[in-house]
Amino acid sequence: MTLEQQIAEILDAFRREIADRINERTSALAGDISRASASALEHDAQARESVLTTARADFAVKLDEALATARADAMRDRSAAISAVHAEADERIRTAVADATREAEASALHTAERELVESRARERHAELACLDRLADAVRRFDQARTLTDVLDALGEVVSREAPRVAMFLVRAGRLAGWRASGFAHGFDARSVEVPNEPGSLLWAAVARGEAVGTGASRSSEQFATPFGVLPDDAAGLAVPVRVGGEVVAVVYADDAGDGPREVPSAWPEVIEVLARHAARCLEVVTLSRAAAAVSTASASPHPSRPMGQPDRPAGTPRAEDDDSARRYARLLVSEIKLYHESAVTEGRQEHDLTERLRSEIDHARRLYEERVPVDIRSRTDHFDQELVRTLANGDPALLGPDRHDASPARALVPPARHTDDCPRRPVSRRPVRRRAPGCPGRDAGVEADRTPAAPGFAGRLLAGAA
Fold first, then answer.
1. Are residues 269 and 243 in the same domain?
2. Burial class (CB within 10 angstroms; exposed 0-12, middle 13-18, buried 19+) of 439
3. Contacts of residue 36, Cβ cutoff 8 Å, sequence gap at least 6
4. How many domains, in total, are found in the chain?
5. Does position 407 have pLDDT exceeding 50, yes or no?
6. Which domain holds residue 405?
7. pLDDT score of 348
8. Residue 42 above 60 pLDDT?
9. Angle subtended at Cα 65 by Cα 63 and Cα 66, rounded to the nearest 5 degrees
10. Is residue 307 part of a domain?
11. Residue 308 lies inside a defined structural domain of this protein
12. pLDDT bucket at 312, cuts 50 / 70 / 90
């Protein structure tokens, strides 16, 4: 091998060694650089991470602050917007409410005015209708010519004012039904009788002589109606019909029917007015019939003395007294015949007029004895003559066997005289517990029995009419 070859080999070996060393050094440097670079990168990463963390923290703080500020600004803006919206809404609401209120007030005023006009119109129509019914009732009463006509007219006109109406007649201590309206179908008023018992609404009206209601009593007492207990919201009324100061009938009315009840209602006052006017009509009819009977009896000639006995010259005081006594006896007996026609007819058929009409005859005889002096009655018993002539139609046998048991000797007994301290008063049939000494017929301040007085003139006339 040549030198050159050797040198070349040595150079190649040196090159290779140098290259290996360079490679090793380069590898070592590369490792160091890698390690340094990794460390630098790590440190840089940590630095960057630290900076980033700090930046994040600062950003978070600033973000929170910004968010808080934004929220605050947003809340302020929102509150301001809401306040503005609320203010606008409130203003609109106030305006709408004011407009609606004005419209409602105007509408309510218009409605109230219209309702007031309609209400007044209805009230006026009701008043006119009531006045029309009252005027028609007065015309009906004016057209009545008999007692029965007056009672029928009263029953008809009051039935138009209240849902339920019933009429009762006073008969011998009881109230007998006369007619009714507004009750159940088939109801017969004549089957109803009301005895005189405490707490009765009808008898309270009879005792007081004035209208008595179930809901407007002057005291705390409660009255019972003849038709049971009324509903709490119903009212009952009893109005007496007085003729000559004596109660002869009672009108009962209530609003316990099936229809609606009017509150307030004027039917109680209207019924009381009708009952009072009917009472006056009954008095007029009674007086008219009595006057007509007296005129008819006076116009008919009749012998008051036995045949063959000369008449006393007219114009002498004695003849005038006899004529007055005869006319008064004729009037009393004519009243009995006039207002008890059915009893007179039956008494004539049965020949028991005296027994059948004993209370009426005794009452008329007492009135005759009180007015006619004893000396006139001792001469001629005009009352007994009129009983035979007028009541018995001239046949004494029709008076019955009790005719002479009626104490004709009473005509010779003078009536009780009354002093100035004990003024004359009508004969009363009401039993009392005792009398004041020395004053016949006057109560001594002791309360009388609850038994009503026997029917007087007006009571008997209505009983006869019924």
1. yes
2. middle
3. none
4. 3
5. no
6. 288-300+317-465
7. 92
8. yes
9. 60
10. no
11. no
12. very low
